[in-house]
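User:
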Amino acid sequence: MLDQQTLEKLAQMRLTAMGQEYRRQLESTEKSALSFEERFGMITDAEYITRQNNRFKRLLSQAKLRIHDACLEDLDYEPRRNLDRGFIARLADMSWLYESRNLIVTGASGTGKTYLACAFGNAACRRSFKTRYYRVNRLLTDLTVGQGDGSYNKIMKELKKSDLLILDDWGMALLDPTKSRDLLEVVEERYGYRSTIISSQMPVKMWHELFEDSTVADAILDRLVHNSYRFELKGPTKRRVETDEQETNISSPSPSGEGEAGP
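Assistant: Predicted structure:
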Protein backbone atom coordinates (compact mmCIF):
# COMPACT_ATOMS: atom_id res chain seq x y z
CA MET A 1 0.00 0.00 0.00
CA LEU A 2 2.78 2.40 0.94
CA ASP A 3 4.65 1.55 -2.27
CA GLN A 4 1.58 2.35 -4.37
CA GLN A 5 1.13 5.70 -2.61
CA THR A 6 4.77 6.54 -3.32
CA LEU A 7 4.31 5.71 -7.00
CA GLU A 8 1.20 7.89 -7.16
CA LYS A 9 3.03 10.81 -5.54
CA LEU A 10 5.92 10.49 -7.99
CA ALA A 11 3.42 10.53 -10.86
CA GLN A 12 1.69 13.64 -9.47
CA MET A 13 5.05 15.40 -9.23
CA ARG A 14 5.76 14.33 -12.84
CA LEU A 15 8.82 12.33 -11.79
CA THR A 16 7.96 9.67 -14.33
CA ALA A 17 11.42 8.14 -14.73
CA MET A 18 11.89 7.90 -10.96
CA GLY A 19 8.56 6.14 -10.70
CA GLN A 20 9.44 3.68 -13.45
CA GLU A 21 12.79 2.84 -11.86
CA TYR A 22 11.20 2.50 -8.42
CA ARG A 23 8.57 0.13 -9.83
CA ARG A 24 11.28 -1.86 -11.58
CA GLN A 25 13.17 -2.25 -8.32
CA LEU A 26 10.03 -3.33 -6.48
CA GLU A 27 9.50 -6.08 -9.04
CA SER A 28 13.17 -7.13 -9.07
CA THR A 29 14.20 -10.20 -7.10
CA GLU A 30 17.68 -8.70 -6.58
CA LYS A 31 16.66 -5.51 -4.80
CA SER A 32 17.61 -6.91 -1.39
CA ALA A 33 21.24 -7.16 -2.54
CA LEU A 34 21.42 -3.37 -2.93
CA SER A 35 21.76 -0.84 -0.14
CA PHE A 36 19.30 2.03 0.28
CA GLU A 37 21.92 4.47 -1.02
CA GLU A 38 22.52 2.38 -4.16
CA ARG A 39 18.83 2.02 -4.90
CA PHE A 40 18.14 5.72 -4.32
CA GLY A 41 21.11 6.62 -6.53
CA MET A 42 19.76 4.47 -9.35
CA ILE A 43 16.32 6.08 -9.01
CA THR A 44 17.83 9.57 -9.08
CA ASP A 45 20.04 8.72 -12.07
CA ALA A 46 17.04 7.47 -14.02
CA GLU A 47 15.24 10.80 -13.62
CA TYR A 48 18.35 12.87 -14.30
CA ILE A 49 19.29 11.00 -17.49
CA THR A 50 15.73 11.14 -18.79
CA ARG A 51 15.51 14.89 -18.23
CA GLN A 52 18.88 15.48 -19.88
CA ASN A 53 17.83 13.43 -22.91
CA ASN A 54 14.50 15.21 -23.16
CA ARG A 55 16.20 18.60 -22.95
CA PHE A 56 18.63 17.61 -25.70
CA LYS A 57 15.78 16.45 -27.95
CA ARG A 58 13.89 19.69 -27.32
CA LEU A 59 16.92 21.88 -28.03
CA LEU A 60 17.77 19.88 -31.15
CA SER A 61 14.21 20.27 -32.43
CA GLN A 62 14.25 24.01 -31.78
CA ALA A 63 17.64 24.38 -33.46
CA LYS A 64 16.18 23.29 -36.82
CA LEU A 65 19.57 22.11 -38.04
CA ARG A 66 19.75 21.35 -41.73
CA ILE A 67 21.52 18.07 -40.85
CA HIS A 68 20.10 17.26 -37.43
CA ASP A 69 22.08 14.05 -36.93
CA ALA A 70 25.48 15.54 -37.83
CA CYS A 71 28.01 14.97 -35.06
CA LEU A 72 31.68 15.69 -34.49
CA GLU A 73 32.42 12.03 -33.80
CA ASP A 74 31.53 11.13 -37.41
CA LEU A 75 33.71 13.73 -39.15
CA ASP A 76 35.81 12.54 -42.07
CA TYR A 77 39.49 13.43 -41.54
CA GLU A 78 40.66 12.38 -45.00
CA PRO A 79 43.94 14.34 -45.46
CA ARG A 80 42.81 16.30 -48.51
CA ARG A 81 39.99 17.91 -46.53
CA ASN A 82 42.39 20.08 -44.51
CA LEU A 83 40.48 19.28 -41.31
CA ASP A 84 42.72 19.09 -38.26
CA ARG A 85 41.62 16.48 -35.71
CA GLY A 86 43.43 18.24 -32.86
CA PHE A 87 41.78 21.57 -33.66
CA ILE A 88 38.36 19.92 -33.66
CA ALA A 89 39.14 18.24 -30.32
CA ARG A 90 40.09 21.58 -28.75
CA LEU A 91 36.82 23.16 -29.85
CA ALA A 92 34.62 20.12 -29.12
CA ASP A 93 34.13 21.06 -25.46
CA MET A 94 32.31 24.20 -26.71
CA SER A 95 34.14 26.40 -24.20
CA TRP A 96 34.43 29.04 -26.93
CA LEU A 97 30.70 29.65 -26.49
CA TYR A 98 31.36 30.94 -22.98
CA GLU A 99 33.87 33.36 -24.52
CA SER A 100 31.37 34.51 -27.20
CA ARG A 101 33.82 33.50 -29.94
CA ASN A 102 32.74 32.69 -33.50
CA LEU A 103 33.49 29.94 -36.01
CA ILE A 104 33.97 30.52 -39.73
CA VAL A 105 33.86 27.58 -42.14
CA THR A 106 34.81 28.22 -45.77
CA GLY A 107 35.42 25.99 -48.75
CA ALA A 108 34.12 24.99 -52.16
CA SER A 109 30.65 23.56 -52.65
CA GLY A 110 30.28 20.01 -51.36
CA THR A 111 33.31 19.98 -49.04
CA GLY A 112 31.19 19.48 -45.91
CA LYS A 113 30.79 23.02 -44.56
CA THR A 114 27.16 22.64 -43.59
CA TYR A 115 27.81 19.25 -41.98
CA LEU A 116 30.63 20.66 -39.85
CA ALA A 117 28.54 23.66 -38.80
CA CYS A 118 25.60 21.41 -37.89
CA ALA A 119 27.90 19.01 -36.03
CA PHE A 120 29.00 21.85 -33.78
CA GLY A 121 25.33 22.83 -33.45
CA ASN A 122 24.48 19.31 -32.33
CA ALA A 123 27.36 19.39 -29.81
CA ALA A 124 26.05 22.70 -28.47
CA CYS A 125 22.58 21.21 -27.95
CA ARG A 126 24.10 18.25 -26.08
CA ARG A 127 25.70 20.75 -23.71
CA SER A 128 22.35 22.52 -23.21
CA PHE A 129 23.11 25.60 -25.33
CA LYS A 130 20.18 27.12 -27.22
CA THR A 131 21.03 26.86 -30.91
CA ARG A 132 19.36 28.13 -34.09
CA TYR A 133 20.19 27.39 -37.72
CA TYR A 134 19.35 29.71 -40.62
CA ARG A 135 20.27 30.00 -44.24
CA VAL A 136 21.28 33.65 -44.59
CA ASN A 137 18.90 34.48 -47.44
CA ARG A 138 15.98 32.90 -45.55
CA LEU A 139 16.79 34.86 -42.40
CA LEU A 140 16.98 38.16 -44.28
CA THR A 141 13.68 37.37 -46.03
CA ASP A 142 12.03 36.62 -42.68
CA LEU A 143 13.31 39.92 -41.29
CA THR A 144 11.99 41.83 -44.31
CA VAL A 145 8.58 40.17 -44.00
CA GLY A 146 8.67 40.75 -40.25
CA GLN A 147 8.90 44.49 -40.71
CA GLY A 148 5.59 44.32 -42.53
CA ASP A 149 3.63 41.86 -40.41
CA GLY A 150 4.94 42.91 -36.99
CA SER A 151 7.03 39.81 -36.29
CA TYR A 152 10.40 41.57 -36.67
CA ASN A 153 10.93 42.16 -32.94
CA LYS A 154 9.94 38.57 -32.15
CA ILE A 155 12.52 37.20 -34.60
CA MET A 156 15.21 39.51 -33.25
CA LYS A 157 14.42 38.47 -29.69
CA GLU A 158 14.77 34.80 -30.63
CA LEU A 159 18.08 35.46 -32.36
CA LYS A 160 19.42 37.37 -29.39
CA LYS A 161 18.50 34.58 -26.94
CA SER A 162 20.18 31.83 -28.96
CA ASP A 163 23.54 30.90 -27.46
CA LEU A 164 24.70 29.76 -30.90
CA LEU A 165 23.44 31.10 -34.22
CA ILE A 166 24.42 29.20 -37.38
CA LEU A 167 24.34 31.25 -40.60
CA ASP A 168 24.70 28.92 -43.57
CA ASP A 169 25.24 29.79 -47.25
CA TRP A 170 26.78 33.16 -46.43
CA GLY A 171 27.57 35.18 -49.55
CA MET A 172 25.16 33.56 -52.01
CA ALA A 173 23.83 36.99 -53.05
CA LEU A 174 24.90 40.63 -52.82
CA LEU A 175 23.43 42.55 -49.90
CA ASP A 176 21.66 45.83 -50.55
CA PRO A 177 21.69 48.56 -47.88
CA THR A 178 18.39 47.41 -46.33
CA LYS A 179 19.47 43.78 -45.93
CA SER A 180 22.90 44.90 -44.75
CA ARG A 181 21.36 46.97 -41.98
CA ASP A 182 19.15 44.05 -40.93
CA LEU A 183 22.19 41.81 -40.76
CA LEU A 184 24.10 44.45 -38.79
CA GLU A 185 21.23 44.60 -36.32
CA VAL A 186 21.47 40.83 -35.79
CA VAL A 187 25.24 40.91 -35.37
CA GLU A 188 25.18 43.95 -33.11
CA GLU A 189 22.55 42.43 -30.79
CA ARG A 190 24.72 39.35 -30.29
CA TYR A 191 28.20 40.86 -30.29
CA GLY A 192 30.07 40.19 -27.07
CA TYR A 193 27.25 38.03 -25.65
CA ARG A 194 26.62 35.15 -28.04
CA SER A 195 28.48 33.05 -30.63
CA THR A 196 27.91 32.62 -34.35
CA ILE A 197 28.98 30.00 -36.90
CA ILE A 198 29.22 31.16 -40.51
CA SER A 199 29.47 28.78 -43.46
CA SER A 200 30.47 30.23 -46.84
CA GLN A 201 31.83 29.23 -50.24
CA MET A 202 33.59 32.58 -50.42
CA PRO A 203 36.94 33.13 -48.66
CA VAL A 204 36.84 35.69 -45.87
CA LYS A 205 39.01 38.14 -47.83
CA MET A 206 36.17 38.54 -50.37
CA TRP A 207 33.35 39.11 -47.89
CA HIS A 208 33.62 42.89 -48.01
CA GLU A 209 32.58 42.77 -51.67
CA LEU A 210 29.21 41.28 -50.71
CA PHE A 211 27.98 44.57 -49.28
CA GLU A 212 26.88 47.60 -51.28
CA ASP A 213 27.45 49.77 -48.21
CA SER A 214 31.13 49.56 -47.26
CA THR A 215 30.56 51.26 -43.90
CA VAL A 216 28.08 48.63 -42.82
CA ALA A 217 30.39 45.93 -44.19
CA ASP A 218 33.20 47.19 -41.97
CA ALA A 219 30.94 47.16 -38.91
CA ILE A 220 29.63 43.63 -39.52
CA LEU A 221 32.95 42.02 -40.40
CA ASP A 222 34.73 43.68 -37.49
CA ARG A 223 32.27 41.99 -35.11
CA LEU A 224 32.32 38.58 -36.80
CA VAL A 225 35.80 37.94 -38.12
CA HIS A 226 38.32 39.24 -35.61
CA ASN A 227 37.30 37.00 -32.70
CA SER A 228 36.71 33.85 -34.74
CA TYR A 229 38.24 30.41 -35.20
CA ARG A 230 38.49 29.41 -38.85
CA PHE A 231 38.24 26.25 -40.94
CA GLU A 232 39.08 26.23 -44.64
CA LEU A 233 37.86 22.92 -46.05
CA LYS A 234 39.39 21.53 -49.22
CA GLY A 235 39.33 18.41 -51.34
CA PRO A 236 36.82 17.04 -53.87
CA THR A 237 33.12 17.49 -53.32
CA LYS A 238 31.75 14.83 -51.00
CA ARG A 239 28.46 14.86 -52.90
CA ARG A 240 30.23 13.46 -55.98
CA VAL A 241 31.98 10.81 -53.87
CA GLU A 242 28.68 9.74 -52.29
CA THR A 243 26.99 9.63 -55.70
CA ASP A 244 29.82 7.52 -57.15
CA GLU A 245 29.58 5.10 -54.22
CA GLN A 246 25.82 4.79 -54.67
CA GLU A 247 26.20 4.15 -58.41
CA THR A 248 28.88 1.53 -57.71
CA ASN A 249 26.62 -0.24 -55.21
CA ILE A 250 23.73 -0.21 -57.64
CA SER A 251 25.76 -1.49 -60.59
CA SER A 252 27.73 -4.16 -58.67
CA PRO A 253 26.15 -7.60 -59.18
CA SER A 254 24.77 -9.36 -56.14
CA PRO A 255 25.36 -13.09 -55.53
CA SER A 256 22.13 -13.78 -57.38
CA GLY A 257 23.32 -11.77 -60.38
CA GLU A 258 21.00 -8.81 -59.79
CA GLY A 259 21.98 -5.19 -58.98
CA GLU A 260 21.80 -4.36 -55.29
CA ALA A 261 21.43 -0.87 -53.82
CA GLY A 262 23.68 0.22 -50.99
CA PRO A 263 22.41 1.05 -47.49
